[in-house]
Amino acid sequence: MEKTLHVQGMSCGHCKMSVSGALKNLDGVSKAEVHLEDGTVDVTFDEAKVNVDAMKEAIEDQGYDVEA
Ligand SMILES: [Cu+2]
Question: What is the reported pTM?
Answer without folding.
Answer: 0.94
